[in-house]
Amino acid sequence: MSLHPDIRMNLARSNVLLIDDNAQALDVLASIFRGFGVLRQVKCGSAAEAQTILRSREIDLIVCDTVMPDMDGYEFVRWLRREGPEEARFSPVIMLTGHAARSTVESSRDCGANFIVSKPFTPEVLLQRIYWVAKDERAMVRSDTYVGPDRRFRNIGPPLGVKGRRKDDLSTHVGAAKDPNMDQDEIDMLLKPQKAAL
Amino acid sequence: MSEAEVFKVRNRLAQHVTEPGGMTAGMANSRAGRELAAQQGRSYEAIGETLETLEWLCDTRDAPMDSVYDLSTQVLDIAGLFDDKQLCRAAYSLCELADKLRTRDEADWASIKLHVNGMRLIWNTEAAGRDNLNAMVEGLWALTDRLRVDDAGGEATPAD
């Protein structure tokens, strides 16, 4: 399921925060986003640096590596969702993961990121996730144990312009009704118990 | 325990994405591909330097498994952005091995060395000639799978 190549997106005015302790990976990530047309990007080499940026700048999307010294990506997102600056607290977050260490499995599930993308990936996959995040209509949930996008499953279909994985998947937008409304008798007939021969 | 609160938030990214202008997904992907290609040389040099450090650790054999884990995640971190599946799979196997070993508080430098040699071989091989290396990568995974860790208790047991 890939993003249709004709879908138009404008990322020029979006402020994107990129966080990775590996300087080379950060440069590569920044170049991918430059290719996507992102003109306003801030690169941070640590979660602590990102915390400072979030206190002073408006950010529309956060892309964060998981494995980092001191504060890892999961801890950072947990901080963001619970104690982050009011303006940035519910900013969309895409996590990029390499290896899932045993000690981090639980925190990755509960950190509150919008999407987790596993490496290796292509720019197409990353762009698709950015599009999904932009179209993500999930509400936020705040509870004692979790703060982040609502994880309860509800089949609202794939976003407009994206093919579903199942053959009977309908897009979120099903369009206007083509047939006239049913009258009450027709509805009653549909609901009326029928005799069945067993 | 208090009741969960459910609420909607404003998504500024959604507003920006639909503004006039911008580019098609196809165009964005092509541009990103060109940007990636421009970064490839320097990035693979950085991977080579990380492999050098791993090779040195294999020679000295006294580093903690955390160091092996950190260095193998560095390889995965960069190679993963270039969709280098083979190098990532080998690096992932070393991450998994180092993670298991540190859980057991053990070291197995022979297996680590085989992984590093395998990653160096992949690094040195042009993409076109890499198909022959798939079996080698599977062999690295067989080494890693020998160690079994009981996730529930964190206690490790030897594989059957």
Q: How would you describe this structure to a colleague?
A:
Chain A is of the alpha/beta class and 198 residues long. Chain A has 6 helices and 8 strands, in the order E-E-H-E-H-E-H-E-H-E-H-E-E-H. Chain A has a 5-stranded parallel β-sheet with strand order 3-2-4-5-6, sandwiched between helices. A two-stranded antiparallel sheet of chain A has the order 7-8. In chain A, a hairpin with a 4-residue loop joins strand 7 and strand 8. By secondary structure, chain B is mainly α. Chain B contains 6 helices and 4 strands, in the order E-H-E-H-H-H-H-H-E-E. Chain B has a two-stranded antiparallel sheet. In chain B, helix 3 packs antiparallel against helix 4. Chain B is extended, with a radius of gyration of 21 Å. Chain B starts with a strand and ends with a strand. The interface between A and B is large, with 61 and 62 residues.
> Would you count the extended β strands of chain B for me?
4
The CATH topology of the domain at 15-139 in chain A: Rossmann fold
Q: What class would the helix/strand composition of chain B place it in?
A: mainly alpha
Give the biggest sheet of chain B.
2 strands, antiparallel
CATH architecture label name of chain B? Up-down Bundle
Strands of chain A, total number: 8
Q: What is the tally of helical segments of chain A?
A: 6
Mean pLDDT of chain B: 90
Helix content of chain B: 55-70%
| Biggest sheet: strand arrangement of chain A | 3-2-4-5-6
- From the spread of the alpha carbons, the general shape of chain A counts as elongated
Following the backbone from N to C, one meets helices and strands of chain A in this order, namely EEHEHEHEHEHEEH
Q: What oligomeric state do the depicted chains represent?
A: heterodimer
